[in-house]
């Protein structure tokens, strides 16, 4: 079951441009027009095929182990939702972020003004979520910054910040 979950999450992360760090780099570095829509459009069929085939392969490989004693999954108390309000705010933030990225891509495809530095969208929504939490300092103190360093680099790059910074002469980096 653990392998199925791990493979499914990995396969699913291929479809959106914010699903994994490699997609963020490809979306921004390649100059793909409307990356959110383009990624989902081009990668949805292979992703769905893999989500169907992978469990079948794993079931085939595990047939011989089916006679082992079954184990019952037990919820972990630390992972339970402790504050319904905070969970709703997070769900609204996630939904709004994805919706705004899609709307931004649609505006780009239609030739209307849009946000070119797409990293600004999730950053702004995350700032709004932070403001509306009951204990923002406590929430921020629970973030494991070590595991999120690559995320910050990706968001910065997705917003075009790294590209802009790297295009300056080396002497200017010292003063910024």
Estimate the helix proportion, in percent: 55-70%
Stretches where pLDDT is under 50 for at least 5 consecutive residues are 161-176
Overall, the morphology is flat
Q: Describe the main β-sheet briefly.
A: none
| Total count of strands | 0
Q: How large, in whole angstroms, is the Cα Rg?
A: 20 Å
Tally of helical runs: 9
Strand pairing plus helix content: what structural class?
Answer: mainly alpha
Structural domain count: 1
What average pLDDT do the residues reach?
76
Distance between the termini: 49 Å
Percent range for β-strand residues: under 5%
Order of helices and strands: HHHHHHHHH
Can you tell me about this structure?
The protein is mainly alpha-helical and 176 residues long. The protein has one domain (2-171). The chain has helices spanning 2-12, 21-29, 35-62, 84-109, 120-132, 136-141, 145-158, 161-166, 170-173. Helix 1 (2-12) runs antiparallel to helix 3 (35-62). The longest helix has 28 residues, at 35-62. The radius of gyration is 20 Å and the shape is flat. 12% of the residues are buried. Mean pLDDT is 76; it is low at 161-176.
Please outline what is shown here.
The protein has helices at about 1-10, 20-30, 35-60, 85-110, 120-130, 135-140, 145-160, 160-165, 170-175. It is mainly alpha-helical and about 180 residues long.
Name a few traits of the molecule:
mainly alpha, 176 residues, flat, disordered C terminus
């Amino acid at each position: 079951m653990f392998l199925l979950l791990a493979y499914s999450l990995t396969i699913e992360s291929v479809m959106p441009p914010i699903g994994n760090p490699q997609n963020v780099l490809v979306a921004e570095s390649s100059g793909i027009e409307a990356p959110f829509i383009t990624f989902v459009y081009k990668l949805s069929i292979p992703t769905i095929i893999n989500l169907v085939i992978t469990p079948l392969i794993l079931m085939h490989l595990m047939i011989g182990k089916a006679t082992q004693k079954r184990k019952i999954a037990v919820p972990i108390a630390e992972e339970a939702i402790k504050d319904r309000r905070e969970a709703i705010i997070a769900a609204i933030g996630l939904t709004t972020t994805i919706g705004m990225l899609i709307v931004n891509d649609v505006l780009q495809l239609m030739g209307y003004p849009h946000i070119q530095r797409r990293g600004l969208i999730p950053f702004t929504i995350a700032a709004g979520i932070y403001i509306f939490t009951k204990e923002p300092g406590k929430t921020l103190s629970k973030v494991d910054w070590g595991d999120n360093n690559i995320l910050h680099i990706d968001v910065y790059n997705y917003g075009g910040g790294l590209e802009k910074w790297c295009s300056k002469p080396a002497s200017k980096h010292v003063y910024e």
